[in-house]
What does this fold into?
Amino acid sequence: MDKDTETTDNTTNRRTLLTSLGVAAVAGIAASSSSQAAQSKNKNFEPAHHAQDSWMNELTGSHRVFIDSATMPGGANAVRYANNILFTHEEDYDGSNEDYGLIVCFRHMSTPYGFNDAMWAKYGKYFSPRAETAPTTNPMNTKSPANGMNTLAGIAAKGVRFAICNKATQAFSQRLASVTNQTFEDVYAELRANPIPDSRFVPAGVIAVTRAQEYGYSLLYSES
It folds into this structure.
């Protein structure tokens, strides 16, 4: 190969490489622009708010926490955790209970903690079938190691509010109606009329968990 041919080949190769790099650069810029546009769009995202969830925005305070529970041990620990958060904020941050908007959610198998003593007196053996002795009062109304010696009334007095899953309430109503020879409608109406104080039914606990985060609540899941 003579020098003129070699020079021509090298020039062609360099042009091909530069052209390829140019295409890659343009593609990279396009991808970067697309990514930036997506990020900008996400920054502008505003969740839709619904009347069923608006009560969450009524809680005052400079901190918001939603404690979710789906098992009975988890429900007991949720009561403990709520008190621990408020106690630590007061002791180590020189804060007060009024600084917190705090919700404890009872859903799935922890839902019975959302019903008052009258319902536990009537249905305790079904709410807690594994207990050695059927409870006749809501266990979270009594101080015990399970809830860290805290009670529903105790944390409610500090401003904690409770969310009770309606979908799980319907499921328990169906089950209770079956084993007690009642109608679903009667049991459901009874449970709905007997919630614990400072609580409200939410359409579904799993929805409440996600909607709370859209209202700026930090999520803490409580398990056994």
Summary: The first helix runs from residue 3 to 43. The helical segments are 3-43, 72-92, 117-127, 152-156, 166-180, 184-192, 205-214. The first strand starts at residue 63 and ends at 69. Strands lie at 63-69, 100-106, 161-165, 199-202, 218-222.
